[in-house]
Amino acid sequence: MPIAEVETIWMNGELVPWHEAKVHVLSHALHYGSGVFEGIRAYETSRGPAVWHLDAHLGRMYDSAAIYHMEIPYSKEQLVRATKDVIRANDLPACYIRPIAFRGYGEIGVNPLANPVDVSIAVWPWGAYLGEAALALRRGCFIALGRARDLDEAPTALVYMPLAHSSCHSFTPGIAERAERVHGTSLEFSRTPDALLADLL
């Protein structure tokens, strides 16, 4: 779905114009997936936009960052305030919210610890995730041929990695999206090692 551009994005403590929110092509996250993010909704109400469980979503992002040894350089309270500021600055009655923390430019190589942690919060109008047509058609789902990773198979040091909501793990839904288009379904699920349905891809 095309992104509906707005005026500003919150980036490292400042509201910057949409087209000036840029990162270096050698940013660590671009090469190694060292980023964590959330997808949040703000809904239109008679009292203005209401963000759905903002505190809980940001809490999960901090938990994901901890798994990746990333110290987010802002408190959760600062990001709550920043989220409200960027929604207000773009005068959006309802929107999608994408906070992301990622390892930026500094050093190259798989060890990310010397790279700074950058944070941004983008908001934009986004209707039904699967499109209004999907709501009307009530299309089915497809069970992927692959399966979700068994935590027991992971080395001890990596056992919590699949629990993080990270940039690198979110590549899997892109593979699932192609299968959805081929099979004409709206959703795709993976399977656990014992053939039960796992989370939505």
Summarize the structure.
By secondary structure, the protein is of the alpha+beta class.
Folded structure, characterized:
This protein has 201 residues and is an alpha+beta fold. It has 2 domains: 8-124, Aminotransferase class 4, branched-chain amino acid transferase, N-terminal domain (D-amino Acid Aminotransferase, Chain A, domain 1), CATH 3.30.470; 132-200, no CATH class. Helix content is 25%, strand content 23%. The chain has 5 helices and 10 strands; from the N terminus they run ββαβββααββαβαββ. It has helices at residues 28-32, 54-67, 76-89, 132-137, 172-183; strands at 8-11, 14-17, 35-37, 40-43, 50-51, 95-103, 117-124, 141-143, 187-191, 197-200. Strands 1, 2, 3, 4, 5, 6 and 7 form a 7-stranded antiparallel β-sheet that branches. The longest helix is centred in the N-terminal third of the chain and has 14 residues, at 54-67. The protein is globular and about 50 Å long. The protein starts with 7 loop residues before the first strand and ends with a strand. Residues 154-160 have low confidence and may be disordered.
| CATH structural class of the largest domain | Alpha Beta
Distance linking N and C termini: 17 Å
Named CATH architecture of the largest domain = 2-Layer Sandwich
Low-confidence stretches: 154-160
Q: Report the sheet-strand fraction.
A: 15-25%
Biggest sheet character: 7 strands, antiparallel
Percent helix, as a range, is: 25-40%
* DSSP summary: helix tally: 5
CATH topology of the largest domain, by name, is D-amino Acid Aminotransferase, Chain A, domain 1
Number of extended strands: 10
Task: Find the structural class using helix and strand composition.
Answer: alpha+beta
What is the name of the CATH superfamily of the largest domain? Aminotransferase class 4, branched-chain amino acid transferase, N-terminal domain
